[in-house]
Amino acid sequence: MEMTMQLSRTLKGHEEIFNNGHTLRPRQRQILFSMGSEGISFGDLCKKLPHCAELEALINDLLQNGFIQALRGMGSAASATAAAPVAKAAAATSDDISCLRGYVLDFMAGLVGTKSPAYRQMSEVTDMASFKAVLPTCRKVIAAVASPHQAAELEAGVASRLGR
Predict the structure, then answer these.
(1) Measured distance between the N- and C-terminal CA atoms of the chain, rounded to whole angstroms
(2) Under DSSP, is residue 6 helix (H, G, I), strand (E, B) or coil?
(3) What is the spatial distance between Cα 68 and Cα 35, in angstroms, rounded to a whole number?
(4) Over 26-88, what HEC string results?
(5) 7-42: per-residue pLDDT in tens?
(6) Are 42 and 3 in contact (CB under 8 A)?
(7) Span 50-109, pLDDT tens digits
(8) Quick one: how many helices (H) and strands (E) in the chain?
């Protein structure tokens, strides 16, 4: 396995840790905890767990069972779209708002579920000002629960729906 390969928890991995799944062996759960919410490279994970002789086999098992994912192609394009501000949104119509709100709600439902306070706040959005106020909260929740890369993907999707 390449030392630079970026690994990140999936929704299934997050649920295993935070919703008391307890379907994994303790060593596998330790790996999930060690990854953090933002993901980690294989090399950094090796440094964090230097005494784990079977690390690569455990990671392959977690990958195959969908608890973690290998992030590919998440270089400068994702960080460039993440840096794009949501500024031109003031001129959007109510149809645009419903489309944007629906996109964000669908995105969040797939990654963090529908019980999040941020999901509830976004579902109550009716105008662009409130959408712009709640979007950063949704982005933070996705970054914390899923990964910063997926939060950047959300922001890029919103920007593309706004025509930027």
Answers:
(1) 38
(2) strand
(3) 9
(4) HHHHHHHHHHCCCCEEHHHHHHHCCCCCCHHHHHHHHHHCCCEEEECCCCHHHHHHHHCCCCH
(5) 888 888 888 877 766 788 888 888 888 887 778 888
(6) yes
(7) 888 888 889 988 888 888 888 754 443 333 333 333 333 344 566 678 888 888 888 888
(8) 9, 3
